[in-house]
């Protein structure tokens, strides 16, 4: 009886190893045939299924014990157990949206929604504590309930900055599940072929699109940079040396070390994209802010992520005399 199958396309593996941040989103989606089952854990989301899947993934990608990488998932107990056992050194982030759905059952309304996400999305502990103070002023019980879910696993203020990822929701996995939704209605072999074909084309299209660009950084990162440049107009840099600045923004003051690539707001440290305080300092030195974007967001690294290719696969009744290289 068929039970399960693990496959990882070599072109995708190569791209992740050579050009992607060390972040993996874990999720399962239901297959929509009468046979049922799930993609990623075929016979169901249980401990044994996830242990098998994550162990296969660990070996194929050479993850070791998960050093300097992040895993992002919902709070399914099977995933929590397996990541802790197989990848004990990985930072395991829990999807803030799933936590919000549970927390919000007892604290309804737009005001609580805004307070939850303000606390979750702040980049440093000072802003985090300020957000909780605001929440406590509305309802002290909301803060107690918030802390029960362990903010260190879903709030940016406590995340590891080495991965240069500030994501705290599992939307990327769900986006991929939507991307393959038509394939999920087919039987296994045809579903896998549809996924292979879609990814084969995607690698080429993404690579060609980026090759047309002459910019230093990726287009979406450039959009974020332009927003920070606009906000920099409200920042006043006061140099202490060529690299150290005190930056005043309204009633707040921040310390920027351009050479060390840190800002006390922590946004630059975590994302690798200069915040408005840093941009103001860079402009003061008559340099371009794009030079200070982390390499992981630059065009050359993006091209490495999509440099691989997925081989062609002829149908059962055609191309039998052909070989592809």
From TrEMBL:
Arranged from A to Z, the UniProt key words for this protein are: DNA recombination, DNA-binding, Metal-binding, Transposition, Zinc, Zinc-finger
One Pfam annotation, family name? SWIM
Q: Where are the transmembrane segments?
A: none
Q: Name one GO biological process term.
A: DNA transposition
Indicate whether Zinc appears among the record's keywords: yes
- State the InterPro entries in the record: MULE_transposase_dom, Transposase_mutator, Znf_PMZ, Znf_SWIM
- Give any GO molecular function from the UniProt entry: transposase activity
Under the heading PROSITE patterns, the entry gives: TRANSPOSASE_MUTATOR (PS01007), ZF_SWIM (PS50966)
Q: Does the keyword Lipid biosynthesis apply?
A: no
List each copy of the SWIM-type domain by range.
254-286
From the Swiss-Prot or TrEMBL record, give the protein name. Answer: Uncharacterized protein isoform X1
**Source organism of this protein record:** Spinacia oleracea (Spinach)
Q: What is the lineage of its organism?
A: Eukaryota, Viridiplantae, Streptophyta, Embryophyta, Tracheophyta
Q: Which gene encodes it?
A: LOC110796196
